[in-house]
Amino acid sequence: MELALSREDAAFRDEVRAFIAQNYPAETRVPNPETDLSKEQMLLWHRILHKKGWIAPLWPKEYGGPGWSITQRFIFEQETTRAGTLPPLAFSVTMVGPVIYTFGNEAQKKKFLPRILSGEDWWCQGYSEPGSGSDLASVRTKAVRDGDQYIVNGHKTWTTLAQHADWIFCLVRTDPTAKPQSGISFLLIDMKSPGVTVRPIITIDGSHEVNDVFLENVRVPAENLIGEENKGWTYAKFLLGNERTSMAGIGRSTRYIERLKKIVKAEVAEDDPAYLEFFREIARIELDVLALEATELRVVAQMARGIDPGPAASLFKIRGTEIFQNITELTHRAIGNYGLAIREHPASANYFMPGPDYGHTASEKYLNARKLSIYGGSNEIQRNIIAKAVLGL
Amino acid sequence: MDIEFTEEQELLRSSVQRLLRDQYDFDARRKIVASEDGWSRKQWLAFAELGLFAASFSEDVGGLGGGTLSTMIIMHEFGRHLVVEPFVETVVLAGGLLEHAGSEEQKQGFIPDIIAGATTWALAWTEKGSRFDLANVATTARREGKDYVLTGEKTAVIAAPWADYLIVSARTSGHRRDRGGVNLFVVDRSAANLELRSFKTIDGRRAAEISLRGVKGQLLGKEGEGVTALEACRDRAIGALCAEAVGAMVELNSATLEHAKTRKQFGVPIGSFQVLQHRMVDMFIAHQEALSLMQHLNLSLSADETGVSRLASGAKSKIGYAGRFIADQAVQIHGGMGMTDELNVGHYFKRISSINIQFGDPAYHVLRYAQVDAAA
Q1: Strands A123-126 and A167-173: what pairing?
Q2: 8 Å CB contact between B182 and B155
């Protein structure tokens, strides 16, 4: 399904498509880009996009954005996910960047924004803590003012790719006496500061994506506070709003469905009754994708007219993640007995994997996809948001 | 229909429980899985000493005559502790085939060593493209004197890397997918011209791709009855794997319930949220149904009732879907912790995922169950 594009927008789409085809680095086409790439490899495409001026579609032009319309942004998102390019560093470009240019002071904008765009600084997110998953406002990490510094103590967890990060943006409690939401501040912390320790968390797929980050008497210059002290919750909510709109994942789902069809054709004989069963299940998923894509296009059209979808955006997170989980599950089933095997890490060690190449990542993706309905606000929380904010229940 | 265990069965259950509680907690298991071979010979011998390998075999071959129900009792407890040692492969699959299809000489020659814990076995029936069809065999066997010579490829054979013996399905006649012409052979795993490439499975076990280039094998069972023997073997395997899955469900449900009562968010235990209460009620119901069906299947297997093969498929499907639902929700309700390698929940999830592949996934078996009606 395509938006009815104007001639300019159609030309823009062609330009994006051609740019990806000509410039996407071949060495990042590995079996599982999410786990198999080094930090340097992950940054290759980021730097190419930066050079082109396309790294931050959402950002206003004055801070280095390309100045695209909502439709153009959507086209870019669609083309890149369809082509399966690595996304820009989400925590840097999509999350902390907009917080800094919206709520930060001039010095912070000047210091951080260019380095985010160039990929020089890699950011990670210090939101979740062992005791606060869905209930973010319950953060316990403490920051105590001491002259022109804060002294930070606490434990952040599920910190994605903290092992690569130069900076972490943290929610910290600066007023322990206030109501949970009102005593929180938004602090930028240099990962090289003394007292910062990163400990890997290995997930059920065997990969190392997330980490614990321990903060012990970390001294942070007060100039790294974003906005006002104790107003951090406002900035955090602003950021989470940005996170949720990009979770429909239509392009990714479409790509994986095409792949799944090829796998079923290769693995299941046409006269096996399972063959039709698979295609019936695939058809149901395709219809889910079609309906979600149509909803996304409808919302994009509304946004172009200035109508904010607001909390209804939660539906993209819910359905997008459920759909992708179904696809990974069906793919795992399609490879039959080879679904018993799983790649060992690190991928660079090239451990033996049985069966055809197309099945080598099926197990790990199936397992890894379980996280989708948990992170970024669990799907239960997203349903609560719709119930409360949309349905008024 | 509830199974009231005999005194002997109760004794078996409590002794397995005691052994596993004392020696096979999650940390002990983690160390075993991380070891070079991924299983513990020490544990294996402890199981043998307790009589777990003797339990199901008939007295004629040196067993205790406990049959299917003793296997069910053992596997349920093994499921609760995520035991990785090759009990199913050695005792249920190979032991069962030897006992039911083997010659007197083969029974007396091989089963006592199994009971003593001296040998481990693996069953090599799957091939590239065979999916879950027992008759889909391309590997060939050619007669040479009193032995046979096997040539072909077997795939994803669990416990093969260090098994002493393999039982291999191979074809003496007919085309791929013909029922006739498939036979079973006992093969020495260290035999000449046999090559293995090992890999790890999602549930922490070891498996191998096997290449046979003229490997000597000894016929097991009557010529031409390989598929029939394998079908009965699959039924018994399903009985055992379903018991194991139900054991895993018990642990997942109790861990999830405990978590829901203690984990606080928004100032209250998450178990106070109605959406999670209803979810956990459904998990409870799924376990109750799975337990009942699993017992029903094992009782039917032990009575050797007609139509038990169809029931096995039905149970594999229903219990497979129930297990997946419970495992999915246990991970979900545990949140990020459920995703970690550190917590046991994810490991139960992976074991259930693996059980759901072995001998056919739930979708395959519901179709097999339906086909009987469709053909009638």
Answers
A1: parallel
A2: no
How close is the nearest chain A Cα to the Cα of B368, in Å?
Answer: 10
CA distance B351 to B205: 10
Q: Which two tokens stand for residue B145?
A: 């004197």
Angstrom distances, CA of residue B286 to CA of B20, B283, B289? 26, 5, 5
Q: Does residue A330 fall inside a structural domain?
A: yes
Shortest CA distance from A277: residue in chain B: B363
d(CA A37, CA A35): 6
- CA A263, A265, A267, A268 dihedral sign is positive
DSSP string, B187-227: EETT-TTEEEEEEEBTTS-EEEEEEEEEEEEEEESSTT-HH
Side chain identity at residue A180, one-letter code = P
Q: Which of A79, A129, A209, A243 is catalytic?
A: A243
Phi and psi angles of residue A320, each rounded to the nearest 5 degrees, phi first:
-60, -45
Mean pLDDT of chain A: 92
Which of B126, B197, B340 shows the shortest C-beta gap to A337?
B126
Copy the structure tokens of residue A309.
């979808």
- The domain that holds A181 is classified in CATH as 2.40.110.10
Task: Provide the shortest C-alpha distance from residue B25 to chain A (in Å).
Answer: 19
Quick one: tokens of A115?
Answer: 């380095």
Instruction: Indicate whether A76 and A135 sit together in one domain.
Output: no
Bridge partners of A192? Answer: none
Contact A352 B197 (CB under 8 A): yes
Nearest to A367 among B126, B335, B350 (CB): B350
Residue A174: helix, strand or coil by DSSP? Answer: coil
Residue of chain A with shortest Cα separation from B342 = A202
Average pLDDT, rounded, for chain B: 96
What local confidence, expressed as pLDDT, does residue A3 receive? 59
Residues A224 and A129 placed together within one structural domain of the fold: yes
Per-residue DSSP letter, A92:
I
Secondary structure of residue A190 in the 3-state scheme: strand
Structure tokens at A333: 């089933």
Buried b (16+ CB within 10 A) or exposed e, B219-248: bbbeeebbbebbebbbbbbbbbbbbbbbbb
Nearest-Å Rg of the Cα atoms of chain B is 21
* pTM of the full structure: 0.95
Asked if B199 and A352 come within 8 Å (Cβ–Cβ), the reply is: yes
For B308, the domain range is 228-375
Residue in A133, A204, A355 closest to B349 by CB = A204
A228 is catalytic: no
Residues B57 and B74 in one domain: yes
- The more confident residue out of A299 and B150 is B150
Q: Among the three residues B223, B255, B274, which one is the final residue of a domain in this structure?
A: B223
Which residues from B are below 8 Å from A367, CB to CB?
A: 202, 346, 349-350, 353
Residue B321 predicted with pLDDT over 90: yes
Distance CA A387, CA A379 (A): 12
How many folded domains does chain A comprise?
A: 3
In this structure, which amino acid lies at residue A382?
Q
Partner-chain contact A341 B265, CB within 8 Å = no
Phi and psi at residue B194, in whole multiples of 5°?
-110, 125
Structure token pair of residue A14: 């062609």
Query: Is residue A356 a contact partner of residue B158, using CB atoms and an 8 Å limit?
Result: no
- Whether residue A58 contacts residue A117, with contact meaning beta carbons closer than 8 Å, is answered with no
Eight-state DSSP code of residue B272: G
Query: B7-23 and B41-49 helices cross at what angle (nearest 10)?
Result: 160
What is the arithmetic mean of pLDDT over A145-172?
97
Question: Which residues in A lie closer than 8 A to residue B354 (C-beta atoms)?
Answer: 340
Give the ranges where chain A is alpha helix by DSSP (H): 7-23, 33-36, 39-52, 70-83, 97-103, 106-118, 232-245, 250-267, 273-304, 314-334, 362-368, 379-385
Give this complex's ipTM: 0.96
A139 is in which domain, residue-wise?
A: 123-230
Q: What is the pLDDT of residues B8-52, one digit of tens each?
A: 999 999 999 999 999 999 999 999 999 999 999 999 999 999 999
